[in-house]
Amino acid sequence: MAHSVFLPIEIACLALLAWIVLAFLGLACIRQPRIILNVIFPAGAAISLVIAVVGFMALTLQAQTIILPLGLPNLPFHLRLDNLSGVFLTLLGGVSFAVSIFSCGYFRNYNGPKLALVALQYHTFLASMALVLLADDAYLFMVAWGAMAVASYFLVTTEHQVPQNRSAGFIYLLTAHLGAIAILFSFGVIQGGHGEYTFDALRQAPLTPLWSTVAFLLAFFGFGAKAGMLPLHIWLPEAHPAAPSPVSALMSGVMIKTAIYGMIRVIYDLLGVIQWQWGMVVLTVGAATALFGILFALTQNDLKRLLAYSSVENIGIILIGLGLSMVFMGMGHPTLGVLGLIAALYHTINHGIYKALLFLGAGAILRSSGMRNLNQMGGFIRHMPKIALFMLVGVLSISALPPLNGFASEWLIFQTTLQAPALQSGVLRSLVPVTAAILALVGALTATCFVKVFGIAFLGQMRNPDLKEIHDARFTETIGMAWLAISCVVLGLLPVFVIHLLNNVSLSITGFGLPSDAVDSNWIWLIPTSAARASYSPIIFFAVVISAVLITIFLVHRLYHGRLRRGPAWDCGYPEQTPRMQDSSDAFAQAIRRIFGPVFKATRHFPSPDDTAPRFSVTVEDKHWAGLYLRIARLTTFVSNQLGVVQQGRIHVYLLYSLVTLIALLIFVQ
Amino acid sequence: MNTLVSGILFQVLQSVLMVLLAPLLLGWVNQCRAWLQNKKGAGIFQPYRTLRKLFNKDAILANNATVFFQRMPYVLFACMWLAVGIVPVLATGLPFSPAADVIALVGIFALARVFQALAAMDIGTAFGGLGARREMLIGFLAEPAMLMTLFTASLISQSTSLVTIVDNFAHHPFAIYPSMAFAAAAFVMVMLAENARIPIDNPVTHLELTMIHEAMILEYSARHLALIEWATSLKLTTYICIGIAIFLPFGIAKAGDWMALPLAIVALLAKLAAAGAGLALLEMVSAKIRIFRAPEFLSTAFLLATLGMLTHFLLEV
């Protein structure tokens, strides 16, 4: 029996292989773009489903390992499928299914060679992400991590004719490599000197608290660079607008989540013993990232840039959850730590889904209208009702509004912060709830930001009357977005199932689970610790709102009447209004720029006084560029120039260097 | 089973009673204000007359209004109805209360606000967008302060469930919490802002440059406007009820306890009347502030609430 049926991990390996095969088939079909669109991408989507099912099965199974005789001599590839990788594989499979289906329609305007390259890189990217999640030794992990970075670099620079896209790609690659080096060093520290790099050996390696803190900091920096935490977030707002939208959806929805996976893997699983000070570091960085991310998202006009900054914000929220969990774990409250971990994982899944949905929506708008700038959009709901509906679901989810999924996970994070009285240290007890305050502010700002997105882009009047050729989503695009939108609703309405499954993850990597009240609760009531403390039931909530709306409509029409007349808009009696009098995206964010002035570097552009059609505009710059990165760049140039003296370009000088080095080494070894 | 039935009866009774009473509270506030201004006033039943007038009119919708605009009043009304059903005003232990705690309650208000702002932007008039932008501004400033206030109460009662909070304050020996004083001050400020009252907004004027809430609903007429007005009064009632539930919960009944019900209703009416008069007085003695002073006002509320929470940790644990 055992041999007639494949183990889930074997299926995962086969699926991974199938993606690689598809990648090269895509390249082979360079002259048949129709085959790539109609066969390769749907086949990739089918494999995604397989991966999602495998991941989902892994959530309730014991960990499985497999050793593949690949790689270097004596260093075979170790793979392992456990509950934690199961969560992220489910996310990868679920999101990439939608994105692949969406891509069948989206990439239709691409010519043969470009499409073949996209198919190659796209499927390699998917396979490398799956490999990152399955890797069970540091070598394979780094190989997969590097492959993921390179594949996504080429995807970001798909439109490489545009110089900005090339430099965006470069910044991305640079950050990715900086991070990768830190991760490599972190593994080097964790192995503790005995040279074994399988994750099992890393788990066993004894570490002094000091070295494990070093390993933690390196891993946090390295994975943080990929995740987009402050101040390493700068690649996100550059790379996301440059990449084609399905790729942005994958990068924001899944790839930056692999960094969260890496953090959890290294901190909870490999290091194991968590110190609460680490938690405070993660918590502080997370809170700063979340607040900064959403403030910048609010002031953006480019829809994809805005979504990228919003991803930065959500990574911050996930880090807040993780940080809380680590503080509680480190202070000896593992049950509360589990709550934070589950909240963080839940938010990771939720963000993966709704951000992918929003990026696909932005892509659908871009393909249909050619627009990315919010200031030019308006009234699209009348031309693309389907896209508008799906975007609305995404917008409500990301704004953390009940009963959708964003609310459920933020609710859990709030519940975790409110467990602060359990902490012994008075300082921590008062600091932890302050993160609740920041989270509350961030949540409210997010709602503002996405009211702006939806209101400006879809509602109101068309700002550009010349725009004729705009149409709704194509069939495959609709399916892709509908899949994600339905996932948002389901994850929002059934949080109890989700936290029961995530509880397995926590049990397997930390050995602790939620208290019995939470685990035994039935599917209607979401209870984090005990029923008296807090409970939430999205299903009842949803049912009551819907029935209240229906009852109100029924009563009003029954008791009074349903008469309706149409007429021109009133607008306080002003008859000559034009679409240009609506609030623009810049105008909507004006209050934010003013209130949070010191955060931004805003430059206003005024029209000349005798301009008959004046346009005001504002550009907002990230202060990190001038304050940090340009300084580093100048320093690097300076150091390189100084070192240039050494570089003579004559061979006998270099020979001299070798000689000096040799002598120095001889003396040193003596 | 019997307790469940009477629990549901209590739930329905409370929800319907509050919906019917809400315009009366608004009428009472307006009447008190008129008295304070040495005017005669229109009587406390004036809001009902306005609602009847509006319901009987034919609704007019702008040509380009979408389903969003048309259905928003119903969603808004349903959200407020839901909110008032969650807050334990007449009795604790209502069957519907565990479905949403204080965070979800703030979530309902946020949901209503987002829908209202989106509907305001639907037609694409200058005022609609302006109102939506300002409403979201007030919203994101007020919401954290509101949550912090509620969290202070939650930390004292070790629960975010409003029922447990109320139970804790109402049915336990009386204790003085300094943190609740900060929280109460913050709550009043948030309540004024969230309900578009002076000093943040003035509910009785339609001055173009200063209006917030009214700018959003300029395009509404007839039954849609009536529902919005009703929902607005319901929101005010809900906020006052939250305040009563957290800061003055005395006299509240337990669900199913029919003997305590008359007393609970009387206590509630007395508290609402006092709160309404207090609100009118507050509005009389303060002036509307510029919109760009609103962040100062609300960040003061936020700081007060956070201070309250810190006080709790410093003095009360």
State the total count of DSSP E strands of chain A.
Answer: 5
Kindly report the average pLDDT value of chain B: 86
Please tell me how large the radius of gyration of chain B is. Answer: 19 Å
Helix content of chain A: 55-70%
Spans of chain A of 5+ residues with little confidence (pLDDT < 50)? Answer: none
- What is the domain total for the residues of chain A? 3
Cα distance spanning the termini of chain B: 40 Å
| Oligomeric status | heterodimer
Number of helical stretches of at least 4 residues of chain A: 24
Q: What structural class results from the helix and strand content of chain B?
A: mainly alpha
Classify the beta-strand content of chain B into a percent band.
under 5%
Radius of gyration of chain A: 26 Å
- Outline of chain A: globular
Tell me how many strands of chain B there are. 3
Strand content of chain A: under 5%
> Going across the major beta sheet of chain A, what is the strand order?
1-2
Helix proportion of residues of chain B, in percent?
Answer: over 70%
The run of helices and strands of chain A is HHEEHHHHHHHHHHHHHHHHHHEHHEEHH
Question: Which secondary structure elements does this structure contain, and how are they paired or packed?
Answer:
The complex is a heterodimer of chains A (670) and B (317).
Chain A: H1 8-28, H2 33-58, E1 64-72, E2 75-81, H3 83-106, H4 112-134, H5 138-156, H6 163-190, H7 199-204, H8 209-227, H9 235-242, H10 245-271, H11 276-299, H12 303-330, H13 334-369, H14 385-398, H15 405-417, H16 426-458, H17 475-493, H18 495-510, H19 516-520, H20 538-559, E3 564-567, H21 585-588, H22 590-595, E4 601-605, E5 617-621, H23 623-643, H24 651-669
Antiparallel strand pairs in A: 1-2, 4-5
Chain B: H1 2-36, H2 46-56, E1 59-62, H3 67-86, E2 91-92, H4 102-122, H5 126-157, H6 162-170, H7 178-194, H8 213-216, H9 222-247, E3 253-254, H10 261-285, H11 294-316
Parallel strand pairs in B: 2-3
